[in-house]
Design a protein that fits this description.
This protein is an alpha/beta fold. Helices cover about 35% and strands about 20% of the residues. The chain contains 14 helices and 18 strands. Strands 1, 2, 5, 6, 7, 8, 9, 10 and 17 form a 9-stranded mixed beta sheet that branches. It has a 4-stranded antiparallel beta sheet with strand order 12-15-14-13, with helices on one face. It binds flavin-adenine dinucleotide.
């Protein structure tokens, strides 16, 4: 099957890329489960924005500080300067954020933030954003969406990506412009495996939580694009930078996806206690430091969890601002307005990923990576809370803009003017035809191999890395980054286009 642009994933990064790509290009969007089952729908706390110029310096500094100054300052600047554009686009597709009685946006605050700069929708911000993006993409006649269909490999020659190999399933469902199509009507074959020929491919496959026993992520997010990248020599970056969320609801059941007790609950005043119900830590320090403190306490006391006290927020605030969290606690037998709840750290976010430039281009031609699977340097060693929805969309937009630029420059086709034959597509056809699908027959073996590949790479990077850098090293990195920041000031306007 042939398409212009292949997008893998249906989270906020995939959808926002699709919305920003030209309507005259055919887009094929595939996703491993249904369209709604992704981490973007789970985001609770909110999305950071630059609310006004006076907050720029401290937003920048908070992001760099949380990332231990290992962030790419240009990427951070691009993200912050593009935040208002993303917010306006989201409102344009119908997403609503909490407002004050006077109609202005109500900003909340989370750990690591020195001020209130996070827009939110109750405690289901991700669902509010992603469901409106999805509704907008569903209306597009140029986007074919394919559920329960997964990427199993890319098709590549000489470091150029020409498309992908996908695996359909019995549940595969195809829709375009809101209408359901049969596989044949949509131009697919009826086999399980299929080769997709594409001018350009965007990987938006999300995080890696499914590789861990305790994670807040959906279980099917297993870093498939990372395994494929390893196999094809595509550059990765900081693959061992994995964020653990300090406070998830403690459950005895090992199969449960860990339920997150949002950072903003602590931002609004919730406290953490040890087994004797004594406070032992500043609840608003960055996540990695807080996780370390909680683990230390649990080891000292030989406990499986610590306690979170949400009572300081008051019954009304808890029910209005955090209805989902409230309901989950009640479901588990706790009334958070009257009693403390048990919380424990769990894998939550992946800062590392497929290395990309400021336009989200990977080290392979015609291949982009956006969202949590990509590493554009925004987060450094540790993500600042509520920066990831924003970062995912900002850099999905950058990918779309770059692809538009390349189409305009004629990068995706070279026609021989004398013969009128498109030489590029002839070559591409041959490369696709040469792919032998029988090597992908055993799904279980590939799945197992991919999981092992990613975990081995993470462990390799972990053992190669020295532990946290000392104070002197951080001071040096901070100075270097600040010098770089001064140099990028001039790019502000370009970044906020
Ligand atoms: C519980 C929770 C709360 C969070 N809260 C916040 C918050 O308040 N603020 C914030 O900024 N961030 C938050 N985050 C992080 C944020 O939600 C994610 O980083 C972001 O949504 C990632 O978006 P994405 O598009 O990269 O990936 P996702 O939304 O996870 O989408 C990945 C997609 O890729 C598909 N996929 C994966 N592998 C394949 C394959 N092989 N073939 C085909 N499809 C595939 C999946 O089916 C899915 O559709 C939270 C995350 C979690 C888990």
């Amino acid at each position: 099957m042939k398409t212009d642009i292949l997008i893998v994933g249906s989270g906020c990064s995939a959808l926002y890329a699709a919305l920003n790509l030209p309507r005259d290009k055919e887009i094929l969007l595939i996703t491993k489960r249904d369209l709604e089952t992704n981490d973007s729908h789970l985001a609770q706390g909110g999305m950071c924005v630059l609310k006004d110029e006076s907050d720029y310096e401290s937003y920048f500094e908070d992001t760099m500080k949380a990332g231990h100054y290992e962030n790419d300052p240009v990427s951070v600047e691009i993200m912050i300067r593009t935040s208002q554009r993303v917010l306006k686009d989201l409102e344009a597709v119908g997403a609503e954020f909490a407002r004050n009685p006077d109609g202005t946006l109500d900003y909340t605050r989370e750990g690591g933030h020195s001020g209130h700069r996070i827009v939110y929708h109750e405690d289901i911000t991700g669902k509010e954003i992603t469901s409106h993006l999805l509704a907008a993409v569903k209306k597009l006649k140029n986007v074919t969406m394919v559920e329960y269909t997964k990427l199993i490999d890319i098709i590549e020659k000489d470091n150029v990506c020409y498309g992908a190999v996908i695996r359909k399933s019995e549940e595969t469902r195809v829709t375009r412009g809101g209408e359901e199509l049969t596989l044949t009507e949509a131009g697919f074959n009826t086999e399980t495996l299929e080769k997709i020929e594409a001018d350009v491919t965007i990987l938006a496959t999300g995080g890696i939580g499914g590789l861990y026993r305790h994670s807040t992520n959906f279980r099917h997010l297993t870093g498939d694009a990372l395994a494929i990248s390893i196999n094809h020599g595509i550059e990765l970056k900081d693959i061992n930078y994995v964020q653990i969320h300090p406070t998830t609801f403690y459950s005895e059941c090992e199969e449960d996806r860990s339920f997150l007790i949002s950072e903003s609950v602590r931002g609004e005043g919730a406290l953490l206690y040890d087994k004797n119900m004594n406070r032992f830590v500043n609840e608003l320090i960055p996540r990695d430091l807080l996780t370390a403190e909680i683990r230390k306490k649990m080891a000292e006391e030989g406990t499986k969890h610590v306690w979170e006290d949400m009572r300081p927020l008051g019954d009304q605030e808890l029910r209005e601002h955090f209805p989902n969290i409230f309901a989950h606690c009640e479901e588990k037998g706790y009334d958070p307005s009257k009693q403390c709840i048990p919380v424990v750290p769990a894998q939550h976010y992946f800062m590392g990923g497929i290395k990309v430039n400021h336009e989200s281009k990977t080290s392979m031609n015609r291949l982009y990576a956006v969202g949590e699977t990509a590493n554009n340097g925004v987060h450094g060693r540790n993500r600042l809370a509520s920066n990831s929805l924003l970062e995912s969309m900002v850099f999905a937009l950058r990918a779309a803009m770059d692809i538009i630029k390349d189409y305009s420059a004629g990068v995706y086709g070279s026609v021989n003017l004398e013969s009128g034959i498109n030489c590029e597509s002839e070559l591409r056809r041959k490369i696709i035809d040469d792919v032998n699908l029988s090597v992908y027959a055993d799904d279980d073996a590939i799945t197992k191999k991919y999981r092992e590949l990613v975990m081995e790479e993470i462990q390799k990077a972990d053992s190669a890395a020295s532990d946290f850098k000392d104070e002197e090293e951080y001071a040096r990195i901070k100075k270097e980054k600040e010098e770089a920041k001064v140099k990028v000031k001039g790019r502000n306007e370009k970044a906020s286009e």
